Amino acid sequence: MAKLAPIILFTYRRAAHTKRCIESLKQSPLAYESELYIFSDASKGGSDYADVMAVRSYIKTITGFKRIVIEEAEQNRGLATNVIYGVGKVLNEHGRAIVLEDDLIVSPFFLPYMNEALEMYKDVEEVININSHVLSSPMKFSDNFLISFANSWGWATWKRGWEYFEPDAEKLLAKIKEEGREREFDLGYHFTRMLQEQCEGKINSWAVRWNASLFVNRKLSLNAGRPLVINGGFGEGATHCNTPDLFSVKLTREELHPSLITPLKEDQTMRNKLRKTYMVRTSYTNKLRMAILTKLKQFF
């Protein structure tokens, strides 16, 4: 295998989640050969101060990686600014990177898959992103497929890919509307609405802009067809993911390797399956079901 890609981890105020993420990474022998960059966001100056200090105390104790670089922000950047800054900085130095947030839990097969995929597709201009998360579905996904969609939960890219990132949400939304591709961009969810809310300043999401940047440029992601990462951050204490867990999955227990897919075009069958899965997961019926289950768990 070629030189391993650095791992970027973004942290804020949840020490327990950060520790769980780190411990999951260390299940892979490749962690000990990988460089780890940690971007610790600062307190907003209120009740989060103690939590931020707990995170910063913990990350200074981390071992088990080839090299650990910690950057502590002096002022609160917010997740979007922190990610855009950190990803750009590491890619400018290394040319490729694997990106995680502190609430993610990865499979032992995550690092091998991501590094193999980054090397396999390093010169494939049509592919600018690697996704490691996929929603569970009764419809079976291929082990690997190409799709014009960027998932923010455990991903990787190259410097050449990140150059397509467009921070101006208005430009992205205008292009999607000009081409009449809103429904296609939504993928059974409400990504167009999110992009509109970004334009209006109601949210600040790097992820919807990265997804839209890939989409308007008609670039592709290699997607793992079995979950190599889960989001363990839903619930109390979450900054954004504080609703009942609509997107829970189980990590794959089987080894997964990337494959070089030809022809280099979006797999419409897989896109339609993912669209239908999002529609079911975010339907009113499923939201109600999850809310009831959450209440029952709390009661018992």
Cα end-to-end separation: 49 Å
Shape: globular
Regarding quaternary structure, what we see is single chain
Mean pLDDT comes to 92
Major sheet size, sense and barrel closure: 8 strands, mixed
Portion of residues in beta strands equals 15-25%
Number of strands: 10
Structural class: alpha/beta
Count of helix runs: 11
CATH superfamily: Spore Coat Polysaccharide Biosynthesis Protein SpsA, Chain A
Which ranges are low-confidence, i.e. pLDDT below 50, for 5 or more consecutive residues? 237-244
Q: What is the CATH domain class? A: Alpha Beta
Integer-rounded radius of gyration: 19 Å
Helix content: 25-40%
The string of secondary-structure elements, in order, is EHEHEHEEHEEEHHHHHEEHH
User: Any idea of the CATH topology?
Assistant: Spore Coat Polysaccharide Biosynthesis Protein SpsA, Chain A
Order of strands, widest sheet: 3-2-1-4-8-6-9-7
Could you walk me through the main structural features you see in this protein, from its secondary elements to its overall organization?
The protein has 300 residues and is α/β, with parallel strands linked by helices. It has one domain: Spore Coat Polysaccharide Biosynthesis Protein SpsA, Chain A (Alpha-Beta Complex). Helix content is 39%, strand content 16%. It is built from 11 helices and 10 strands. It has helices at residues 15-25, 49-59, 79-94, 110-120, 159-162, 169-178, 182-186, 191-199, 206-216, 268-281, 284-299; strands spanning 7-11, 35-40, 67-72, 96-101, 104-106, 127-131, 144-147, 155-158, 220-224, 229-231. It has an 8-stranded mixed beta sheet with strand order 3-2-1-4-8-6-9-7, with helices on both faces. A two-stranded antiparallel ribbon has the order 5-10. Helix 2 links the parallel strand 2 and strand 3 (67-72). Helix 6 crosses helix 8 (191-199). It is globular. The model is unreliable at 237-244 (pLDDT under 50).
